[in-house]
From TrEMBL:
Metabolic or biological pathway, per its Swiss-Prot or TrEMBL entry: Porphyrin-containing compound metabolism; protoporphyrin-IX biosynthesis; coproporphyrinogen-III from 5-aminolevulinate: step 4/4
Molecular function per GO: uroporphyrinogen decarboxylase activity
Source species of the chain: Alcanivorax hongdengensis A-11-3
Subunit: Homodimer.
Protein's UniProt name: Uroporphyrinogen decarboxylase
Domain Uroporphyrinogen decarboxylase (URO-D): 24-33, 144-160
Keyword Lyase belongs to the record: yes
Residues that span the membrane, as ranges: none
GO biological process annotation, one example: protoporphyrinogen IX biosynthetic process from glutamate
SUPFAM superfamilies: UROD/MetE-like
Record field: catalytic activity: uroporphyrinogen III + 4 H(+) = coproporphyrinogen III + 4 CO2
Gene symbol of the encoding locus: hemE
């Protein structure tokens, strides 16, 4: 596949800690329910998974935020639970309750029965979406591919859906660690193949979303979450189309472990809002770029307050290379799209070099 040359590479340069004219910006979950045009596309699709599995509609919603705002990157519209679904667990969504699985994974037999999905066939709809989006971008901005981390995927697979305490998986970690490792290793192999396929189909950077790694103790985080993200980083295609493919690790509530995460070989760390970005930069030095980290709830505040918080974060990071501005987690559905615009414009205005 041959794609148009990249016109705006500010995001990729920042991830590689190269000089940029201003701080690049995008938002986690930027294609989402806060946008009326997204809600219309989802209505047209019929369901969330139908939207994910239709390459043209997935492309349509990926591009929607770029039509509204001067973003520096697009992110593939998909879901982190595509891999467990392709393993045959039967993903479905109940209104107001989030994702659920028809089958759970709790025994040795359950783990043994899990196939490692073929990214090109079992997840071919994702690859079709990646190449469709990359073609439609026509070099405008880079395309980010992504996956959930093995630990985060395992929480849904073992609990059967969302959980507050992860009691089944944590019980497995402490009483049957070898079983937890077998599951996580299978997931790491699956994620590696999945992200490499996304890169081959046109993703120019990838992010691993470790949404629930922060629920672990420091020791368990290293053994059951970071170890498997490290395995993925080691197995990824790092150069493609004559250019480096940067890797971003994002562990929500992972601020305690930034130095260890930076040792993984990733290019950037995503930060949630619970850590000061200047302190994070001092701790990791020049080993990795940093992405983040405004509290998404700031977008409910006045435009003046939004601008003040953007400026504070930029000032805290300081005049150093390697900052991608983002929220500390995904934008929430009730945000006024005009407030998201204030946020993006403020980053551009205050970060001009």
């Amino acid at each position: 596949m041959t794609f148009a040359p990249l016109q705006n590479d500010r995001f990729l340069k920042a991830l590689n800690r190269e000089a940029v004219d201003r701080t690049p910006v995008w938002m986690m979950r930027q294609a989402g329910r806060y946008l009326p045009e997204y809600r219309a596309s989802r209505e047209k699709a019929g369901s969330f998974m139908d939207l994910c599995q239709n390459a043209e509609l997935a492309c349509e919603v990926t591009l929607q935020p770029l039509e509204r705002y001067p973003m520096d990157a697009a992110i593939l519209f998909s879901d982190i639970l595509t891999i467990p679904d392709a393993m045959g667990l039967g993903l479905y969504f109940e209104t107001g309750e989030g994702p659920k699985f028809r089958k759970v994974v709790r025994t040795e037999a359950d783990v043994a029965a899990l196939p490692i999905p073929d990214a090109e066939t079992d997840l071919g709809y994702v690859m079709k979406a990646v190449s469709t989006i990359r073609g439609a971008l026509n070099g405008r901005v880079p395309l980010i591919g992504f996956s959930g981390s093995p630990w985060t995927l395992a929480t849904y697979m073992v609990e059967g859906g969302s959980s507050k305490d992860f009691r089944h998986l944590k019980a497995m970690v402490y009483s049957q660690p070898e079983l937890a490792h077998a599951l996580l290793d299978k997931l790491a192999q699956s994620v590696t193949a999945y992200l490499n396929a996304q890169i081959r189909h046109g993703a120019q950077a990838v992010q691993i979303f470790d949404t629930w790694g922060g629920a672990l103790s420091a020791e368990a985080y290293r053994e059951f979450s970071l170890k498997y993200m490290q395995q993925i980083v080691d197995g990824l295609i790092r150069d493609h189309e004559g250019r480096k493919v940067p890797v971003i690790l994002f562990t929500k509530n992972g601020g305690l472990w930034l130095e260890t995460m930076a040792d993984s070989g990733c290019d950037a760390l995503g930060l949630d809002w619970t850590i000061n970005i200047g302190e994070a930069r001092r701790r990791v030095g020049d080993r990795v770029a940093l992405q983040g980290n405004m509290d998404p709830a700031v977008l409910y505040a006045s435009p003046r307050a939004i601008r003040a918080e953007v400026k504070r974060i930029l000032d805290d990071f300081g005049d150093h290379p390697g900052h991608v501005f983002n929220l500390g987690h995904g934008i929430t559905p009730q945000v006024d799209p005009a407030h998201a615009g204030v946020f993006i414009d403020a980053v551009q205005e205050f970060s001009q070099r």
